[in-house]
Amino acid sequence: MNIEKVDRILEEHEYKHSAIISIMQDVQGIENYLPEDTLRYISEKLELNLTRIFDIATFYKTFSLTPRGRHTIRVCCGTACHLGGASQNLEQMKRTLHIKEGEATDDSMFSLETVNCLGTCALAPVVMIDEDYHDAVSPSKIEKILSSYHSESKRL
Ligand code: FES
Q: For a tag site, which of 30, 62, 89, 108 has the least CB within 10 Å?
């Protein structure tokens, strides 16, 4: 935990209880997830019940209590995507990355999640990686899609 950065975030939000979600978003921006020791620290500094903070962290899908990869993969498993083969895409992702849903790869490159609808049902089945939408995804396309993120990372 980077205490100085967390303290700065708390100061920016004037230690207000009403800003807890924004505080958690900013803190997650530091490490890409919310470490338990950081949440305990915030709870003490704000004098806000730790259970309340964990409730928020588990309620909103945007928060993660486990380390995330550099790229977040969201496989849509809503009705339209399910009918289009989302389950097969999800299984192929798991096989290719050697992780389960909710986990990150050993190299911290990718983490894998599912969502119920990305709002682009006409393009089903859809996979979202970070802010990019990939439409009409099939298991045979997955390796190529993922490799584009590997090449992108090498260029950075
Ligand atoms: S069900 Fe997948 S985008 Fe709507």
A: 62
Q: How far is CA 64 from CA 24, 31, 68, 120, in A?
A: 10, 10, 7, 24
Calculate how far, in angstroms, residue 24's C-alpha sits from the geometric centre of ligand 1.
28
Q: Output the CA 125–ligand 1 centroid distance in Å.
A: 7
Give the global pTM. Answer: 0.74
Say yes or no: CB of residue 118 within 6 Å of ligand 1: yes
| One pLDDT digit (tens) per residue for the chain, 156 residues | 689 999 999 999 999 999 999 999 999 988 889 999 999 999 999 999 999 999 999 999 889 898 888 999 999 999 999 999 999 999 999 999 999 998 999 999 999 999 999 999 999 999 999 999 999 999 999 999 999 997 766 555
Q: What domains sit in the chain, N to C, each tagged with a CATH number?
A: 3-59 (no CATH), 71-155 (3.40.30.10)
Give helix 36-46 / helix 50-59 axis angle, nearest 10°.
130
